Amino acid sequence: MDELTALRELEPEVPSLTDEARAAARSRLAVAMARERTGSRGPSRRLVLRTAFTATVAAAVTGVVVATTDGRGGGGPRTLNAAQVLHRAAERTRAEDPDITVPRGDQYLYSREVYTQTMIVSGRRTTHTDEFWISENGSRTSRYLYDGRIKDEPPLTEHEVAWPPTAYAKLREMPADPDGLLVALGHPEYRRTEDEAQSAYMDLLLLMRGPRVLPPGLRAAAFEAFAKLPGIVIQDGEVDALGRRGIGVTLGGQSFGLVFERGTCAYLGLRQEGVRGARPVGKELRGGEKYLEVRALVASGVVDEIGQRPR
Questions:
Q1: First-last CA distance in the chain
Q2: pLDDT tens by residue, 111-136
Q3: In angstroms, rounded to a whole number, what is the distance separating the alpha carbons of residues 242 and 294?
Q4: 151, 167 contact by CB (below 8 A)
Q5: How far apart are CA 113 and CA 269, in angstroms?
Q6: Rounded to two decimals, what is the model's pTM?
Q7: Could you tell me how far CA 38 lies from the centroid of its own chain?
Q8: Eight-class DSSP state of 49
């Protein structure tokens, strides 16, 4: 299982993440994940939040296809594989790309998410709401409201950067084509090894995780980049946190992925399999109860201060 950090601690003149820095960050992330699941005190939640869909349980999936209606309004059901779902989602996104209000560096990126957690064995289901106020360029304190619990995060230091970026100026530098985007994220060799494909997959998920104001074309390019990864498969029968029937798309062997609406392939949100109450044993998490978590974005925008919400 490959886990990536959402923060790259770099000297300003260093252009890319070194293997040593990546390994150290993964180690910190594994510890943070374990403490998050067990409820013990540990590293700042910022590290976990910015890699919110790192796997904790491997999901066994197969390369299946699903029947869905023609999103253009014609014909009856048709059969789509994972890559076709992603390309349909990219087409829809490009057609619907809204006019972008470019955020300033001193503003906040706001989002509100509803998510459900369903325990695999007992079937018990709970619904929660999170809200985020993220400093656009990392220069101000950010706030995370986790189901009513407040966590304030200090500004980034001079040796910290958000990865993938939250600043619009940085996102605008990323190519709006799938091959260029994979290179910009540091994964030109994604077809050569399973580890590199998983690394590319994680960075793309982090890009989708938000909150971010994505420049026109970048979300569509991300969907097309997902489609290029070897091992992308369908997980049918998903239901998002708002009760909408969806199609899950994931990288084979991973326990987290994307959810799209059946019929239209509209992007709905993210899903994850995890473990509550697990304890770290060496490099693994053991024990606990498995659950399925599915998130849906219900509001987003740009505001001037923490506590404000878009009108």
A1: 41
A2: 999 999 999 889 899 999 999 999 99
A3: 9
A4: no
A5: 9
A6: 0.74
A7: 22
A8: H
